[in-house]
Design the sequence.
């Protein structure tokens, strides 16, 4: 299983339920990476998508404690064991965890690859992703050249769990 996230210099990923910044190339990389794949998200992340609709062209799974939640175009599951059973139907290389904070923290232990858009800026934030640079179980294996969006500099990084 993989995960995909955009984080600032302090590994912040959100503030007040919103993304910190929207970078068009990051969005394009996300779409290219996940198109036709399985994306797993929490219901709060789903609500923040355009019109609160699941990702087009993906198999969407929403993890929520709300037993009454129904989402057109997505499968709603209510526990990690239920999710782990469901994703057995798919190649684990095709399953991406897409957020938010509690979903990342709950599921990172099952992931072996992390695609991180690392933004060279510090934002006001209240949601964070685990710092993979300080985690001895992860190693940086790929790093893009620096890119710029207006005055923001960012890189696309790939971390892999150490064997």
Sequence:
């Amino acid at each position: 299983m993989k995960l995909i996230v955009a984080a600032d210099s302090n590994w912040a990923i959100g503030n007040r339920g919103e993304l910190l910044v929207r970078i068009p190339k990051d969005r394009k990389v996300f779409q290219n990476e996940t198109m036709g794949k399985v994306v797993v998200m929490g219901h709060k992340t789903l609500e923040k998508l355009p019109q609160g609709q699941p990702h087009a062209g993906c198999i969407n799974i929403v993890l929520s404690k709300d037993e009454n939640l129904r989402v057109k175009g997505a499968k709603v599951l209510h526990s990690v064991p239920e999710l782990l059973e469901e994703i057995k139907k798919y190649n684990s290389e095709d399953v991406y965890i897409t957020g938010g904070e509690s979903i990342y923290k709950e599921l990172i232990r099952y992931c072996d690859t992390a695609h991180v858009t690392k933004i060279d800026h510090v934002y006001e934030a209240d949601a964070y992703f685990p710092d993979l640079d300080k985690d001895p179980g992860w190693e940086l294996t790929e790093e893009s050249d620096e890119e710029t969006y207006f005055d923001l500099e960012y890189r696309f990084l790939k971390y892999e769990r150490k064997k």
Summary: The two ends are 15 Å apart (CA to CA). The chain has one domain: 2-161.
